């Protein structure tokens, strides 16, 4: 078999090796760099998307937190309002109740006084009648004569009138 | 004991003759080059099978590591604007490494043929000149030879031409020295083992001295330097010089 010289540049080999080198560059680009770069780009896009999502979620969480805090503050002020309203109502009500009670007590007192006065009047009248007839009996017995009923009555009334005034 | 160190074998020569270029021959260099290309392309396809975005396989991790290393090397040495050079420099490096190391399986390295390195160096030289003309214009490029003074012109032209020649010969010389030293060592060890085992008495010595026992193992130790270290180193140096020269050429002045 023929061999070429140890140190020589063969034109056709030279040209073929240039073509081989560029072909190899193309093949490496097509079969190694392109697919790997695509995957790397996809991964980067995924990581970016995840970071964006995380940021969005964080913002949402912050928004929710502020909303929650607002709600809490509102609720607290509302609760305070309710409590103060209740306190106001309660004091108003108690005042009302006290007033009502006082009024009722006064009414009861008035009624009682009226009742007492009436009873007293009744009692006085009864006593007046009792004393009248008693006096008439006694007087009849004392003078043994029957003075006219009318005169008598007039006398007694006069007397009782004086007594009643003294009573 | 004859040691015969020759160039690449010529398998087939096409009968017709081209002007200037001569006859086209299928040489050992070309066949092994195509084998190297097949190996590299096959490896690329193997590494990029079943690519996934998450939970990547070891293969994909290796492929991504290679791509990132190539990116870092080229962009680190040449800058972001030479991003398009990444496949070329990668191809140069990986072809060189695999060509150098393929001698380990007993094939003749395509890089043990000066035609290969000359082809690469001329491509790089054309790229360097292209960048220089792009940066300075044709006039600026030609004027550059007269700097710092006109007397220096012949030396400048000489140094310009020396660039590809030195690149090609540096790589070729290192690989060829490996080939030569390997051949010498194999031959020397065969002689040594035949002499050593010939000392044994009778038929045993006669039989054993025919077998070059010392050729087993010992050359492998030497190939750590001559094939592995030198092979990877020369590929790295060649690519380093390529990126440096092209990046320098792109700067005006």
Protein model, in words:
The complex is a heterodimer of chains A (167) and B (253). By secondary structure, chain A is mostly helical. Chain A has one domain. Helices cover 90% and strands 0% of the residues of chain A. Chain A is built from two helices and no strands. Chain A has helices at residues 11-143, 149-166. In chain A, helix 1 crosses helix 2 (149-166). The radius of gyration of chain A is 63 Å and the shape is rod-shaped. The mean pLDDT of chain A is 88. Chain B has one domain. Chain B is 68% helix and 6% strand. Chain B has helices at 28-47, 58-78, 86-101, 114-143, 153-197, 202-208, 218-249, and strands at 10-18, 22-27. In chain B, strands 1-2 form a two-stranded antiparallel sheet. In chain B, a hairpin with a 3-residue loop joins strand 1 (10-18) and strand 2. The mean pLDDT of chain B is 88.
Task: Please tell me what the overall shape of chain B is.
Answer: globular
Count of helical stretches of chain B: 7
Question: Which class best fits the helix and strand makeup of chain A?
Answer: mainly alpha
Give, in order, the helices and strands of chain B.
Answer: EEHHHHHHH
Question: If interface size is counted as residues with C-beta under 8 Å from the partner's C-beta, which chains form the largest one?
Answer: A-B, 40 and 56 residues
Give a short account of the largest sheet of chain B.
Answer: 2 strands, antiparallel
What is the strand content of chain B? 5-15%
Q: Order of strands across the widest beta sheet of chain B?
A: 1-2
Give the biggest beta sheet of chain A: none
First-residue to last-residue Cα separation of chain B: 58 Å
Helix content of chain B: 55-70%
Apparent shape of chain A: rod-shaped
Task: Write the element-wise H/E pattern of chain A from the N-terminal end onward.
Answer: HH
pLDDT < 50 stretches of chain B: none
Indicate how many domains the architecture of chain A comprises: 1
Helical segment count of chain A: 2
Give the number of DSSP strands of chain B.
2
As residue ranges, the low-confidence spans of chain A are: none
Q: End-to-end distance of chain A, in Å? A: 173 Å
């Amino acid at each position: 078999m023929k061999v070429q010289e140890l140190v020589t540049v063969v034109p056709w080999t030279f040209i073929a090796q240039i073509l081989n080198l560029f072909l190899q560059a193309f093949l490496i680009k097509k079969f190694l760099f392109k697919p790997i770069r695509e995957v790397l780009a996809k991964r980067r896009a995924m990581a970016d998307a995840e970071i964006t999502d995380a940021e969005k979620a964080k913002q949402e969480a912050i928004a929710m937190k502020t909303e929650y805090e607002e709600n809490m503050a509102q609720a607290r002020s509302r609760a305070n309002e309710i409590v103060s309203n209740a306190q106001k109502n309660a004091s108003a009500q108690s005042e009302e109740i006290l007033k009502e009670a006082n009024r009722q007590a006064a009414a009861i007192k008035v009624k009682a006084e009226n009742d007492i006065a009436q009873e007293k009047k009744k009692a006085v009248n009864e006593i007046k009648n009792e004393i009248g007839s008693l006096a008439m009996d006694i007087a009849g017995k004392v003078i043994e004569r029957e003075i006219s009923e009318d005169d008598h009555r007039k006398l007694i009334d006069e007397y009782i009138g004086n007594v009643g005034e003294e009573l | 004991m004859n040691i015969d160190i020759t160039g690449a074998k010529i398998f087939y020569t096409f009968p017709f003759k081209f002007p200037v270029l001569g006859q086209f021959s299928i040489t050992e260099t070309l066949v092994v080059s195509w084998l190297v290309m097949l190996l590299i392309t096959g490896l690329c396809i193997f590494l990029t099978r079943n690519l996934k975005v998450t939970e990547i396989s070891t293969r994909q991790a290796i492929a991504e590591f290679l791509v990132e290393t190539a990116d870092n090397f080229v962009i680190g040495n040449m800058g972001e604007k030479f991003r398009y050079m990444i496949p070329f420099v990668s191809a140069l490096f990986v072809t060189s490494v695999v060509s150098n190391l393929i001698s380990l399986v007993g094939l003749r390295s395509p890089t043990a043929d000066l035609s290969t390195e000359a082809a690469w160096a001329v491509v790089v030289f054309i790229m360097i000149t292209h960048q220089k003309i792009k940066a300075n214009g044709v006039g600026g490029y030609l004027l550059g030879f007269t700097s710092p003074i006109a007397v220096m012109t012949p030396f400048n032209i000489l140094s310009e031409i020396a660039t590809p020649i030195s690149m090609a010969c540096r790589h070729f010389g290192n690989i060829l020295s490996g080939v030569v030293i390997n051949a010498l060592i194999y031959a020397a060890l065969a002689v040594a083992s035949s002499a050593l085992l010939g000392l044994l008495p009778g038929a045993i010595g006669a039989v054993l001295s025919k077998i070059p026992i010392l050729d087993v193992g010992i050359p492998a130790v030497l190939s750590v330097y001559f094939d592995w270290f030198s092979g990877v180193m020369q590929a790295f140096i060649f690519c380093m010089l390529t990126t440096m020269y092209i990046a320098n050429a792109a700067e005006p002045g």
